Amino acid sequence: MTEAVHTDESDLEDEGGPAETPPSYTVAGWREWVALPGCEVAWVKAKLDTGARSSAIHAFDLEEIEKDGARWVRFTIHPWQASDEDAVVVERPVLDVREVRSSSGHADERFVVPMDVTLMGRTVTTEMTLSRRDEMGFRMLIGREGLRQGYVVDPAQSYLGGKPPLATRRRNRGR
């Protein structure tokens, strides 16, 4: 016995309305320039990593604080690769402290905070882990949890969302 196949939209309405439209996705390259509007960071280069579950940003001088009875963390961001210029001090509520395992297998406990990220002209809020990434190729990594908010990564492309002005890119030491 076969199931009935609905071809008439009026049939669907009897079962709770038409099927939902599949979500539209924004195609991004494997590396993109993003903004962190809540942190006053206009440009930071990020790697879009579908192999990583969570997103991470280079953060240091972490200090756990209390605000209005809630657990917060104060930290500093260096948005430029290989430079400590334009450091930004940020405070965010702590969502969690998680053990995160690196690709080399090293486990590390990290603060998890909510952070707005503007990627390809859209701003989404994602959970961001705070870690030392000064030795890494990118100061920021956007993992699957952030990307699942409507992004698809084309590994053959870079900077589909555009690049900052040349003077800004030079601050990033050509990387």
Question: What's the short story on this structure?
Answer:
This protein is mostly beta strands and 175 residues long. The protein is 9% helix and 46% strand.
Helices and strands in order, then pairings?
Layout lengths: L8 H5 L12 E4 L1 E6 L4 E8 L6 E4 L1 E8 L2 E8 L10 E6 L2 E6 L5 E13 L2 E10 L8 E3 L1 H4 L3 E4 L11 H6 L4
Parallel strand pairs: 1-12, 3-11, 4-10
Antiparallel strand pairs: 2-3, 4-11, 5-6, 6-7, 8-9, 9-10
Protein name: RimK/LysX family protein
InterPro entries: Asp_endopeptidase, Peptidase_aspartic_dom_sf
Low-confidence stretches at least 5 residues in length (pLDDT < 50)? Answer: 1-15
Order of the strands making up the biggest sheet: 2-3-11-4-10-9-8
| Proportion of residues in extended strands | over 45%
How many β strands by DSSP? 12
Helical content, roughly?
under 10%
Q: What general form does the structure show?
A: globular
How would you classify the helix and strand content by structural class?
mainly beta
Mean pLDDT figure: 84
Major beta sheet summary = 7 strands, mixed
Series of H and E elements = HEEEEEEEEEEEHEH
Number of distinct helices: 3
Tell me the distance between the termini.
61 Å
The Cα radius of gyration reads: 20 Å
What are the key terms here?
12 strands, 7-stranded mixed sheet, 3-stranded antiparallel sheet, 175 residues, mainly beta, disordered N terminus
